[in-house]
Amino acid sequence: MRSGSKISLSLLKKLAPVQILALGFATVIFTGALLLMLPISSAAGIATPFLTALFTSTSAVCVTGLVVVDTGTYWSTFGQFVIMILIETGGLGFMSFATLIAILLGRKITLRERLVIQEAMNSFSLQGLVRLAKYALMATFAIEATGAALLAIRFIPDYGFVKGLWFGIFHAVSAYCNAGFDIVGNFQNLIPYQESVIVNVTVMALIVIGGIGFVVQSEIYNSRNFKRFTLHTKVVLVTTAILIFGGALLFFILEYNNPGTMKPLSMKGKILSSFFASVTPRTAGFNTVDTTNMTLASKIITIIFMYIGASPGSTGGGIKTSTFAVLVMTVISVIKGRDDTEIAGKRIPKDLVYRALSIVAISIALLIVDVLVLSLTEKGAGLVEMVYEATSAFGTVGLSLGFSPKLTSIGRIIIILTMYTGRVGPLTLAFAFAQKNLKSGAIVKYPEERVLIG
Length: 454
Fold this sequence. Notes:
Elements lengths: L1 H13 L2 H21 L12 H12 L9 H4 L2 H16 L1 H11 L6 H11 L7 H31 L1 H16 L20 H15 L2 H10 L7 H25 L11 H13 L16 H13 L12 H15 L5 E3 L2 E3 L1 H28 L5 H12 L14 H16 L1 H8 L21
Antiparallel strand pairs: 1-2
Helix pairs in contact: 2-3, 2-5, 2-7, 2-19, 3-5, 3-18, 5-9, 6-8, 8-9, 8-10, 9-10, 10-13, 11-12, 12-13, 12-14, 14-17, 15-16, 16-17, 16-18, 17-18
């Protein structure tokens, strides 16, 4: 056994941080799948098929929320608890929990471990990483506890004290980690609470706070002055605000008279549902209106929001708000005839612009492949449904048009791989599979020559 452990440690030492990150998420996913396969995990007390358990575990660890069986009725309390732990682990990142264990045991965090934490949290430098990891853990538990208490106020009258408290805890964790799993049952999600101010506002607040990223949270807590924030924090906050309020206005206009969604609601319900529909694609997956009955325009806007996703170093997925902002400002700079991308009087380095373009290119290519494969395997599904499902998986959102439970085995495998890629990050995964020194290309510079563009 000792020799086997030594071999495993030596192999880990040879892996790059991005490879450890990719392997770590895969390990947690398969561990979760094995636990969910146990008879004790299902409400019926029977063993769950491996592919169903793997799909659910991947969706939980990748904080997506897509499901092939109803979370509230299929899984037992034990199974739901396993899912919640997987959501927490996936949302915070397994390295955060490894750091917590190391701190509790009094063990020093090595340089290699710091490099993995840096990759996991998308941090600029190694300085203050352990402190940031500690903050992420403490803030997460404090915010989730507050959210659970607020949600329990509404759930306890409906389900009793014990079940209502459990509902509050589960949905608070799911919302803060941008997972979108619900245990209301019968695929209802939060539709029964579409007029509840406390449920809507609490869930939206948890989604937004979890989605802006731990670095931004820490800076807001410590500085509390917008002018003193770093450019990254300003970009994340401004982009998030524009998407939320702009999206809410669009959904309000498009769904106001839609009898399948907002028309039967009061004005309060319409406003709450509009904001909820704008917040949840980034990247939570809860819904308070029937997504299948939304107008085509609303579905397209939702797809765009799911693709953009949350912010770097957060519990969410997508290409990220800062990536989207950098690309938009790059286009504006090109139109203005400027050589550099400029945001708020600051110049963005070329390597960050290239990184943003690479993320968008890889993710679009991934989605095209997904839709092509799904079009061959999923008979009867429309183009919008396939694009919606694939984007939801990539953005680790969890919103669905009722397509997930109908997926074939191949379709489930495609969505599983897409969720995994979306959570780890397309560029991170590309780096993990690259069998070369990523900096070796900087040694040689080739002659410059121009090509025609546009």
